[in-house]
Write a structure and sequence with these properties.
It is built from eight helices and seven strands. By secondary structure, it is of the alpha/beta class. It has a seven-stranded parallel sheet, with helices on both faces. It starts with 8 loop residues before the first strand and ends in a 9-residue tail after the last strand.
Length: 259
């Protein structure tokens, strides 16, 4: 399927690894030029070069912390008129809510709620003026089915979800869509870190923890970031203009509810 986005420009945040990289690769495979952001320059440059070699698209790198004002400014200077925005940032660490203080909550809100809102604010009016825009926020399946040990993520990402619910509908008639992708367990560094945390807390071996985690997923496996990226690319396509304000769960069937 031709997604009809060849030649457009996308900002992809936290795009050097994991789900962000999966989205960047899928967009590039469909002819989208990239402004690729991540904190670590070494991994960022390696990913950018791999994408250039595989697809031939233009890839501009911005090594910066997207959760800071300076980082966002650098990214927006590199892409002042993006057609596509993929918001992504590492989630806060798991833990017990009794151990979190105000600074922990503020850091989670800054990374997983306020930063994507700031980037949406900076880009959607220009998209609307040009008659086309796509915003995809990478959130978490925990928005749909909260996980007690991920309370910081649950709270911050749910705040973003509420913001998107209203804002997406206010922009729906302009050609701009905003949707959230809710990943379950995908084979990323974040997942491996969470599994290590469970192993350390329970005294189980890492292999046992991983096996049990896969058993809890009807698909019987962890997701591939390339699968996630393909879904992101579709939501960014010309064919998805009638989809907005949605929370799309991609979790191998792990969520047990009907709705």
């Amino acid at each position: 399927m031709d997604l009809k986005i060849r030649g457009k420009t996308a900002i992809v945040c936290a795009g050097s690894k994991g789900l962000g990289r999966g989205c960047a690769e899928a967009l590039a495979a469909n002819g989208v030029d990239l402004v690729l952001n991540a904190r670590g320059s070494e991994a960022l440059e390696a990913t950018a070069e791999a994408i250039r070699n595989a697809t031939g698209v233009n890839v501009t790198t911005v090594a910066a912390d997207i959760t800071t004002e300076a980082g966002r400014r650098a990214v927006l200077e590199a892409a002042p008129t993006p057609d596509i925005l993929v918001n992504n940032a590492g989630g806060p660490p798991p833990g017990d809510f009794r151990d979190w203080d105000e600074s922990d909550w503020l850091a989670a809100l800054q990374a997983n709620m306020l930063t994507p809102i700031a980037l949406i604010k900076a880009t959607v009016d220009g998209m609307a003026e040009r008659g086309f825009g796509r915003v995809v926020n990478i959130t978490s399946s925990a928005v749909k089915a909260p996980i007690a040990t991920l309370g910081l993520s649950n709270g911050a990402r749910s705040g973003l979800t509420g913001f998107v619910a209203g804002t997406s509908r206010a922009l729906a008639g302009t050609g701009v869509t905003i949707n959230n992708l809710l990943p379950g367990r995908f084979a990323t560094d974040r997942l491996w870190s969470n599994l290590d945390d469970v192993a350390n807390r329970t005294g189980q071996s890492r292999d046992v923890v991983e096996t049990n985690a896969k058993k809890a997923i009807p698909a019987g496996r962890f997701g591939d970031p390339a699968e996630f990226g393909a879904y992101c690319a579709f939501l960014c396509s010309a064919h998805a203009g009638y989809v907005t304000g949605q929370n799309v769960l991609i979790d191998g069937g792990a969520y047990p509810g009907t709705f």
